[in-house]
From TrEMBL, chain A:
Membrane-traversing stretches: 19-40, 73-96, 108-128, 148-168, 180-201, 221-242
Highest rank taxon of the organism: Bacteria
Source species taxonomy: Bacteria, Bacillati, Actinomycetota, Actinomycetes, Geodermatophilales
InterPro entries the UniProt entry points to: CbtA_put (IPR012666)
Protein name: Uncharacterized membrane protein, predicted cobalt tansporter CbtA
Pfam families (UniProt xref): CbtA
Claim: Transmembrane helix is one of the keywords in the record: yes
Annotated organism of origin: Klenkia brasiliensis
Amino acid sequence: MAAALDSPRQETAPRFAPLLGRFALAGAVAGVASGTWALLVTERAIAPALALEEARGGGHEHGEELVGRGTQLVGGFLGTVVAAVVFSVVVAAVYAGVRHRLPGRTDVGRVAVLTAVGFGVFALLPALKMPANPPAVGDPDTVGTRTAIYIAVLGAGVVTALLVSALVGTLRARGLHPSAVATAAVLLTVALVAATVLLVPDNPDSIASDVPAAVVWDFRLASLGQLAVMWTTLGLAAGYLVDRLARRS
Amino acid sequence: MTSAQHTTPRTAVPRMAVPAYAWALALLALFALYLVAQDNGAVLASAGDLAHEFFHDARHSLGMPCH
């Protein structure tokens, strides 16, 4: 591996179409992995919340058997797969655009860096600002506000990633030691994440007193775990496939 | 000398050609996710209600806001 890297021959960049195919395949694998997690773990955390909803004698005003629970389980799995494939297509385009700037000596490393950023922006940061809530917790009247908060947090995460990468590029171009660059990058990330958490308005919903904390937090951790499985699998599978593609070209 | 030695050899990584359809496809994919995740009847009308309930658990478990 090291010999190949040190060889004077310039490697040629992979073409986009096969790269996209590798990412989409990895996205499907990530979707099946996180969808399986959804069925085995997250659904077990949703069940007590639905039981609460049932006990209140309500349920969503529009949820009355339009779709049965069994069908919703299938939808939970399929929706997770769709989301993973969508993320993989978006990550493929971004990866093609920034591949030559990403740290890492191989595509395994570069894809890992980009998908770690993706997990930070699309999973960790929203979870910090507005942790996921199980059914029976949300107030239907505030869904517009909560969607706006969610999108604002995603936007702030993308801006954070862009600013940090711009800072890293600038400092590296000036020849700073990598440890100094890393320190600066971490400090800027912390500052911007803190600003996002402090400045974006909080979730307006209060959690009703009949909802046990364990029901809420089991669900939140299951949800974050599901997203972690998705992004980790995407990063590992796409890294492996793209690395093989790049070595072939 | 100083910088070249301890930074990754970026010159060795050629820039990839990114066709315009890459970004179009990414936007299309995000729009599809929006339909799955967010649409509460805004675009799909009554079919949206079905999609909304069908993907209900995925939306919650992926941390997206839901009623």
